[in-house]
Amino acid sequence: MSDIKKAKAVKPVKLADPVAASIDPATQEMIARAQELGVDTVFDRAVGMKPCNIGMQGICCKNCAMGPCRLPLPKDGIKENDIEVRKGLCGASANTIAARNFARMVAGGAAAHSDHGRCVAEVFLSVARKETDAYQIKDPVKLRAIAPHFDVATTVELDGEQVDREIDEIALEVAEKALSEWGKAEGELYNLKRAPKPLYEKWKKNGVLPRNIDREIVEIMHRTHMGVDQDYKNIIKQCTRASIADGWGGSMLATDLQDVLFGTPTPIQSEANLGVMKEDHVNIVIHGHEPVLSEMIVAVSQKPEMIDYAKSKGAKGIQLSGICCTANEMLQRHGVPSAGTFLQQELAIITGACDAMVVDIQCIFQNVANVAKCFHTKIITTHPIAKMEQNNVIHIEFDEHYAIQDAEKIIKLAIDNFQNREAEVMIPKHKAQQIAGFGVESILYHLGGTFRGTYYTLNDNIINGRIRGIAGVVGCNNARTRHNEAHIKVVKELIKNDVIVLTTGCNGIACAMEGLLTPESAAVFCGPGLAEVCETVGIPPVLHLGSCVDNSRILLAATEVVKAGGLGNDICDLPAAGSAPEWMSEKAISIGHYFVTSGVYTVFGLHLPTSGAPVFHDYISKEIEKLYGGKWDLEADPIKHAQLMIAHIDKKRKELGIDKARDRVLMDMAARQALDA
To answer: How far is 353 from 438, CA to CA, in rounded Å?
Structure first.
C-alpha cells in the first residue's frame, strides 16, 4: 500500500468546501486534490475544530494552576458592578485578564521579530569581524546612511579635512552598537530618534521609551505573572514599550542590516502562486522568515555545477520558490517567485513536485511533516530553536560560518530526491505577474521626485487630491476566514477610492496572486486620481515593501512624508490608516500596537481578544488615541473595514484643510509649510 493510500484511511470526517475556503483557484484545486487523496490540510481542520468563544474574547486566564479561570460575559449584558462579580480565583477582573493576555501576545510577537533581528545582527557582526567569507556588505551606501543613527561617524578628520572612514571600520562599530540594543544596561534605543519629534516627545511624556529590546519583553512576562500588575492601563503601558521596541527596534534593525548585507531592494519583476513550480525542475520551497539561510540557497542554486548536478539526475534545472516572508525576502532582492501565502504551505507539497521544503522559523505548520509522509518531499529544518518531532524530518543546522557548505548540502539533498517522485504531479496553472521590491528609497525615487531628495511630489499629490491618502495593509492569513478574500476586498476598495496601498507579508503575496502588483492594474482597479499617478510614474497602486519585519519601512516612509511638509508635524496628522484584514499571529498584535502607538489608526479583521472586557477594549479603541494619536478598531466585513479607513483618511484631510477641490498646482516649500501653521 502506498503512502497516498494509507492517507486515505484517515480521511477527516468533515471536509472544507474548496470554493468557500479560498478565493484563489489554485488553492481551490489543491484543496480538492488533497481531499481526493485523503491528505489532511488546515482548511479541513478549520471545519472540524471550532475555536473557544471565551478565549477569542480574551477572558480566559491560565497564568497559574488555580485556573484556567473563564469569565464569560453575562447573558443579560454588563452590569454596573460587573468588575466585582466577574473575577478569577485570585480576584483578577476581566480587564486585568484581557490586558495580560493582550500584553503576552505583544511579548510573543515582539520576541519573534526581535530574535529575527538579533540573528541578523549576529551575522552582521561576524561579517564585520571577517569571521565568514559567505557574506559581504552589498550596500555600503545604506551602511553610511544608517551609521549616524547609531552615533557612528562616517568621516574622520585628516590633515584638517574630513575624509570618509573605511567601510570595515564603520561596519564593526555599527555591528557592536546594533547588537547592544538587545541588552544594554542604560539609555534608550537609538532608532527612536528617527521618529518625528512630536511622536518621540509623546513617548517620552508617557514613559514608554524602550530601554533595551529584551528587557521590555521580559518585563511584560513579569508583570503578567500571577499577582503582579493588576491595572490594565499600566499593563498596556508596558506592552507599548515592548511593541515600540519591536517596530522601531528589532524589526527596524533587521530591515536595515539585511539591506546592508544582502542589498537594498529595488523594484523587480517576478511571479506568484503555486503555478510557479515546474514539473521538470527540482523544486525547492523555502518557508519561514530569516533571509540569512535563503540568501545562501539562492546563491548556491545558481552555481553551474549545481545546475549540472540537477541535470545529471534528470531535471532541467532548479526552481526556487518561497512561502510566507522568506518568499518576500527572496523576491525583493532576487526576483525568486512566491509559491504562496501562509495557508498554502501544505498545498505546495500536495502538488507532488516539491522535492524539498526548507524551513527556518515562524508560521510553519507542524503538519507539513505529516503531509510530506504522503509524498516524496523532504522536510528540512535548519534553525536550532525550531525543530519538529516527526521522524521523517531532517535537521541540518545552519551556521553562518559554514553557510555555503550547509546550502550545498541542502540543495544536493533536494536534487537527489528528484528521482524519488511517486505521486502524480499536479501543479495548478494559476500564477500572476508582480512587481515588488519597493522601500523608502525606491518610493523616494518614484514618488518623491528624482532631484529633490524628499517625498515632495507624493505630498503634493495627496494635497491636490490625486491621492486621497495612504494605507498600510499587512498581515497573515487565517483559516477562520475565506483565504485571501478580506485581503483583496479591502485593498481593491481602497485603491478604487484613490488610496495608495503599502503592503508587506502575506497580504503582499495575496495582492500579487490577484494581479494587483502590476502598473497595468491601476487602470482597471483604481480611482482616476491614483490611476493617473500610477500611469505617470509607472508603478502599481499597491507597493510591496517586503516581509513582516519590513513594516518598519512603512513607519519610515510615513516619517519621510511628515518631513516633506504640508501634511502635519506627526504621523497621527497624516491622511493614513493601517489594516490587518486576516491577522493570525502574536506578531500581528505587536505590529498593530506599535502602529497604534506611532499614531496610526489601525483596523483589524475577524476579532480582537479584547471584546470580553468592554472597558479595556474601549481603552485601546478610544482612550489611547489621546496619548499617541492612533487607536485600534475592529471590523470583520472587508468593505466596511476599508470604508472605516477611508473615513479616517477623509477626517484627517479635513483637519489639514485639504478636503476641498482645488486646482492641481505644484506647491513650493513655503506654500506647503503654510498648511501646517
So the answer is: 31
C-alpha cell at 151: 552615533
In order of start, what are the domains of the chain with their CATH numbers? 94-261 (1.20.1270.30), 274-420 (3.40.50.2030), 433-674 (3.40.50.2030)
The rounded distance, in Å, linking the Cα atoms of 339 and 348 is 7
What is the amino acid identity at position 514? E
Q: Which residues contact 301 (CB under 8 A, 6 or more apart)?
A: 284, 307, 318, 320, 407, 411
Helix (H) or strand (E) holding 242: helix 232-245
User: What pLDDT, on a 0 to 100 scale, did the predictor assign at position 501?
Assistant: 98
Which residue is associated with the grid cell 512587481?
A: 435
Question: pTM, whole model, 2 decimals?
Answer: 0.94
3-state secondary structure of 286: strand
How many whole angstroms separate alpha carbon 577 and alpha carbon 633?
Answer: 11
| Residue 198 preceded by cis peptide, ω within 30 | no
Q: For the chain, state the CA radius of gyration.
A: 25
Q: Determine the Cα–Cα distance for residues 673 and 454; give it in Å rounded to an integer.
A: 14
CA 318 to chain centre: 27
Burial of 197 (0-12, 13-18, 19+ CB in 10 A): exposed
How far is residue 285's CA from residue 73's CA, in Å, rounded to a whole number? 45
Task: Please check whether residue 328 is in contact with residue 504, taking contact to mean a CB–CB distance below 8 angstroms.
Answer: yes
Q: Give the amino acid at 616.
A: F
pLDDT digits (tens, 9 = 90+) for 64-121: 999 899 999 887 666 656 666 789 999 999 999 999 999 999 999 999 999 999 999 9
pLDDT band of 402, cuts 50, 70, 90: very high
- Total residues found in the chain within this entry: 677
* Separation of first and last alpha carbons in the chain: 78
